[in-house]
Amino acid sequence: MAQLFGKKIKMKYVLHQVLIHVLSECNLACKHCYAHNFKDKLSLKEIKKIMDDSKILGASLCHFSGGEFFLREDYQDIVNYAHKLFPYVEITSNGQLIDLDICNFLKNKISKLIISFEGPNAQVNDKIRGKGSFNKAKKAILIARKNKLNVGINFTITKQNIDLINEMIKFAKELNINFVNFRRFIPVGAGKEYMELSPQEYLNLNRIVNKARRKDSSIAMAGDPTRILLDSTLRFKTKFAGCMAGIALISINPNGDITPCGYLDYCIGNIRKNSLIDIWNNSRILFKLRDRENLNESCKNCSNKLLCGGCRAAAYAKSGNLFSKDPLCWLK
Q1: What does the pLDDT look like over 78-95, one tens digit per residue?
Q2: Are 180 and 168 in contact (CB under 8 A)?
Q3: Model-level pTM?
Q4: Cβ-contact 194, 32 below 8 angstroms
């Protein structure tokens, strides 16, 4: 037995979302990218097997990322297979290759197309993502919206753009997009050298986004475990709260490594050596993550640990310990 959100529940756990990084190759070189260059990619057969196993484990959402997803020559085969298996299929892209043909293909096959920006203008965005990337990504948004795709923005908050949150919301409104995901920066991959926010800056960020969300529910601190502490309505609107690494989420890297989430640089197996089903149901690390009594330091003694649990990826990136405190926790 383990405790989740104050309730004793039985193993085994139902997987909700699988994140598949289909390749490492990318046509941009973002300075803060969390992805590693594995110099490898999953075969179409391996990707289909991951999807099959995820479906058996109960997954309803399959999310594809890279590298850059649309660099795969077989991306249509991947999307078509996912569309048959899952009610929700999402793709994160840098938007550089998206054109009318891609949008026409994706129509009625995916639930979300998410395009990444680092700022509301080329001056800010291109310093991080590369020259010309802003205009290409903006063009992709406009084509996708014209073709009635459910499209939104990922905006990772760093010290370089934290003052531009409201401008980013205004920019999104001008593009008539469906949603804005503000994302917490985790110092992994190429981003290890990037400066993190301070806990106070992180709290201010959450307050600004939460204030905007009260007026527009399409705005969110996507996937952030602490957001529920400021927005109590989320406790009733969502089935999942707090850090979902290994609880409702699993991630696969381009070399086959299995990790509890896409930002958590901790391998618990490899699909070329281990069964994803076996890892999900029997991994000792996943069992420990699912019981928040295993948390250490301030997270262990926090009255909100069953709601939040702290970001395990951030804890590991900072300390090398999966169960240590969330380094950006603003609760005192």
Answers
A1: 999 999 999 999 999 999
A2: yes
A3: 0.92
A4: yes
